[in-house]
Amino acid sequence: MNSLEIKVIPVSDNYRNECFLIDDIPLHEYLSKWYQENGWGEIPQPIAPVDDLTVTWNAPFDHDGDARFMRFLLSKDNVNLPLLSCPDDLDFSCAVIIAEVEKTENFVYWKRIGRINHSIEIFDEEKAHGIAFVDGYSDDDWIKYNSPDLHNVDSDEWCEWISAHWSEELFRRRINYTYHCYQDDRNIDWIYECSWCFDRKKYEALAASCKPHWCDDARKEG
């Protein structure tokens, strides 16, 4: 069985960063080794510098809807789960390193590690999967949002609503569109089959201690 921790450790350029440690080895060291083993050479940007990537489980996301989405993903049992992301674009639009996660009663497996390939994602399709995506409506949604113009992307009413409720709009896009993209192998460049196994109780305790959150302008200034 493997061990999993999240610690702040020294990295390159006399800098310290929060990192995943698997069996006391930082995940970025595994990634560098795997790239070499695969004959891919040095890790390219925007993944590089790989030891500078942000742990998504504790990330200060640019938008509250993305932080909510990360918490939603952490609650799933079997999921392709973001682990690391570019610190300059904490909004799932840039480099995203994921693990294929499978949970059993007593164990959690990270079966493969990969990188999200955004080339198949289509922005117009994403826009259509927010408040306009009626296929995802609950009974309460139909009561609150039963307006044809609200379901019409780029209508005046739609534009006004998403401007006033961006957190909810973005979260809906993430669970209705981004989530399904992340579960599709066509959107993933798999890097390595690692087959790591963790104790589920310890794993869930670590995940529960993490707090992906929204780093708004006020917090950034503070």
Instruction: Based on Cα principal axes, name the global outline.
Output: globular
| Number of helical segments with 4 or more residues | 8
Cα(first) to Cα(last) distance is 41 Å
The biggest sheet, with number of strands, parallel, antiparallel or mixed sense and barrel status, is: 5 strands, antiparallel
Largest sheet, spatial ordering of strands: 4-6-7-8-9
Uncertain regions: pLDDT < 50 for 5+ in a row? 217-222
Could you please describe the fold and organization of this structure?
With 222 residues, the protein is of the alpha+beta class. Helices cover 33% and strands 27% of the residues. The chain folds into two domains: 4-119 and 185-221, no CATH class; 123-169, no CATH class. The strands form three sheets. A five-stranded antiparallel beta sheet has the order 4-6-7-8-9.
Primary descriptors:
222 residues; alpha+beta; 2 domains; five-stranded antiparallel sheet; three-stranded antiparallel sheet; 8 helices; 33% helix; 27% strand; globular; disordered C terminus
